[in-house]
Amino acid sequence: MKMALTGVALSAAVALAGCTPAQQRGFLPEGSTDATNHTEGITALWVNSWIVLLGVGVITWGLVIWATIAYRRRKGQTGLPVQLRYNMPIETFFTVVPVVLILAFFAFTAQEQTKIEARYDDPEVTIEVFGKRWAWDFNYLDEDVYFQGVQVQTDDNGSAIPETMPVLYLPVGKTTELRIETRDVIHSFWIVEFLYKKDMIPGQTNYMSFTPEKVGTFMGKCAELCGEYHSMMLFEVKVVEQAEYDTYIESLRAQGNIGSVGEDLNSNQDLFYGDESLAQNA
């Protein structure tokens, strides 16, 4: 068994050494590996899970093929082969190993999710995000300015026009908390390369806490079917240096976008906003 496991480990190491960068990150979006302080852990969980599951699959397929060939009916044979009613060691193995794998997957997933869901005690940047059919509003709470988006426009081919895309600016290297809310129906806030999404539930505030670690432009979209123009509910995230972030904030202030656009603009005005998860006035 030790020799077999050593052979499997060496084979896996050789195979991984020849993988492309896309394969090494499990075909997750390009640029996602070090986009935030969470993406490296998410990528490792994803890739290692697939390696383990691929190993299980190879062993299972190998046993199926071996049993099919070794115990096939030969020429001249008739009737049923000798039947094996049970084999306690094999049945115990086939029971214990899946249970161990499930517990291990659960433990590593729970550990990583706990890191992702942990909120900062005192985030350096706090932004309130409102989803609405079919655009986005961003309240930069620390700076007391806002961006109010409109639906992305399309060209003659139905493709989004980049200039009409709502943009969320984030300073690189700063602990950031996003407060996620919706103005109407359920949406889902998803920054693709950040490898995480969060539902936007009417009457409820959800949170995303992370630290952007790489300057660049990232794609965002709604990940919950929310109506006719759901596919056009897009936005961009620009992670920039602090100076560029400050310049953008000042441009919003110069446009007169001072204060915030809050719950008074919600199309659902009969929702109760409080400590309870969700309640509607009777």
Structure description:
It is a single chain. This protein is α+β, with helices and mostly antiparallel strands and 282 residues long. It folds into two domains: 2-72 and 82-117, no CATH class; 125-276, Cupredoxins -  blue copper proteins (Immunoglobulin-like). The protein has five helices and twelve strands. It has helices at residues 2-17, 21-24, 39-70, 88-117, 242-254; strands at residues 125-132, 135-140, 145-148, 167-171, 176-182, 187-191, 196-200, 206-210, 216-222, 234-240, 271-272, 279-280. A five-stranded mixed β-sheet has the order 3-2-1-5-8. The protein has a five-stranded mixed β-sheet with strand order 4-10-9-6-7. Strands 11-12 form a two-stranded antiparallel ribbon. The chain is elongated, with a radius of gyration of 26 Å. The N and C termini lie far apart (66 Å). The relative contact order is 0.14.
Total strands: the figure is 12
- CATH-level-2 architecture of the largest domain: Sandwich
Spatial strand sequence of the major β-sheet: 3-2-1-5-8
* Helix and strand composition category: alpha+beta
Which topology of the largest domain does CATH recognise?
A: Immunoglobulin-like
Strand content: 15-25%
The CATH superfamily of the largest domain bears the name Cupredoxins -  blue copper proteins
Question: Nearest-angstrom radius of gyration?
Answer: 26 Å
The chain-level mean pLDDT equals: 87
Total helix count?
5
Main β-sheet description: 5 strands, mixed
Distance between the termini: 66 Å
In percent, how helical is the residue content?
25-40%
Q: Which class of the largest domain in CATH terms?
A: Mainly Beta
Which runs of at least 5 residues are low in confidence (pLDDT < 50)?
275-282
